[in-house]
Write a structure and sequence with these properties.
Blueprint (H helix, E strand, L loop, with lengths): L3 E5 L5 H15 L3 H22 L7 E9 L2 E7 L26 H8 L2 E5 L4 E7 L2
Antiparallel strand pairs: 1-2, 2-3, 3-5, 4-5
Helix pairs in contact: 1-2, 2-3
C-alpha cells in the first residue's frame, strides 16, 4: 500500500480517495467507527480541494498522503488553489444557515476528526485521528 496518491480535480476521482482509505483501513486495522470517520472526513476534504481549491480545473491535482504517528493517523490533503480564510466560515448550525445545503464540510471534518489543521492559507488540510 502506498502512503500517497495524486488525483485529478474531478469529482469522478473521489472513488480513488475511497480506495486509498480502504487500503489504509486494511493495512492499519481501523475499527469500523474510525474507518467511517476517516472516510467521510477525507472525502469531504478532497471534495473541497477539488471544488473550492482547484475550481474543478482538471489540469490541477489534489495530493493526499497518510502518516502514522504512534497511536494516530494523519491524512494530509493538498490542493493547488489560492487558499481561503478558514477563520471566516459561517456556522452551519446557526439559524440563518441551518437550511442551506452547502457549508457543512469543515464542520463535519472538525466533528469527525480528533484534530483539524489548516496550513498555507488552507491549501493544506491535516486531519488527525486517534487510533483506539
Amino acid at each position: 500500500m502506498q502512503n500517497h496518491i495524486s488525483i485529478k480535480s474531478t469529482l469522478e476521482s473521489l472513488h480513488l480517495v475511497e480506495k486509498f482509505v480502504d487500503e489504509a483501513a486494511v493495512k492499519y486495522n481501523f475499527s469500523n467507527e474510525i474507518y467511517g470517520n476517516i472516510l467521510m472526513a477525507t472525502l469531504e476534504a478532497a471534495n473541497n480541494a477539488i471544488f473550492h481549491g482547484n475550481q474543478n480545473d482538471v489540469n490541477k491535482f489534489v495530493e493526499i498522503e497518510i502518516h502514522r504517528n504512534k497511536n494516530e493517523m494523519e491524512f494530509i490533503i493538498t490542493d493547488e488553489g489560492l487558499g481561503f480564510d478558514f477563520r471566516d466560515i459561517p456556522d452551519p448550525t446557526a439559524p440563518d444557515n441551518i437550511e442551506k445545503i452547502n457549508g457543512r464540510g469543515i464542520f463535519l471534518m472538525k466533528k469527525l476528526s480528533d484534530k483539524l489543521e489548516f496550513i498555507e492559507k488552507g491549501r493544506i488540510v491535516k486531519l488527525t485521528f486517534k487510533l483506539k
